[in-house]
Specification:
By secondary structure, the protein is mainly α. The chain has a domain at about 45-145: Winged helix-like DNA-binding domain superfamily/Winged helix DNA-binding domain (Arc Repressor Mutant, subunit A, Orthogonal Bundle), CATH 1.10.10. The protein contains seven helices and three strands; from the N terminus they run H-H-E-H-H-E-E-H-H-H. The protein has a three-stranded antiparallel beta sheet with strand order 1-3-2. Helix 1 (about 15-45) packs across helix 5, helix 2 (about 45-60) crosses helix 5 and helix 3 crosses helix 4 (about 75-90). The N and C termini lie far apart (about 50 Å).
């Protein structure tokens, strides 16, 4: 007597959701790994450096280290090390605000903004290449379905 493989629909929903989580995780890690390697190889920067520069590019007036840490969801210590390395390359600058000499406002330098624009365009092209198997409708559908997942389970959608 042969035992038939349990059909997908017969699996408990909790098991299906666990499989979904594992697939999402594997896909995200694979894409991230490829992007990390390309950033390192093509631009000699790390993913955390790219993330910091991306955050600063969205705030041309700069931000303090606490804001930057919160935005990136990492510790102040991690951000400080990244900022130190970017400052050595003259890609970011630190400036103490007149109102608080204990904190610094960090912003991209003109060199940093220019370099980031090049790296960001390459990054966009790489992501486009890595997700080329999805047409516009499929991408929109996935974006809609996954929209609120990170913040509230199946809450409202986000872009």
């Amino acid at each position: 007597m042969t035992v038939a493989k349990q059909s997908v629909s017969a699996r408990p929903l909790s098991k299906q959701r666990l499989r979904l989580w594992l697939r999402l995780l594997r896909a995200a890690r694979g894409i991230e790994s490829e992007l990390r390697e390309r950033l390192r190889k093509d631009f000699a920067i790390t993913m955390p450096q790219f993330d910091v520069m991306a955050a600063l590019a969205r705030k041309p007036d700069g931000m303090n280290m606490t804001e930057l840490s919160r935005m990136l969801m990492v510790s102040n210590g991690n951000v400080t090390g990244i900022i130190d390395r970017l400052a050595v390359e003259k890609l970011v600058q630190r400036q103490a605000p007149a109102t608080d000499r204990r904190s610094f406002i960090v912003r991209l330098t003109p060199k940093g903004a220019s370099q980031f624009a090049v790296v960001a365009k390459a990054h966009e092209n790489w992501v486009d290449e890595l997700l080329a198997g999805f047409d516009a409708a499929e991408a929109d559908h996935l974006i809609e379905m996954l929209g609120g997942l990170a913040s509230s389970g199946r809450g409202e959608t986000q872009s």
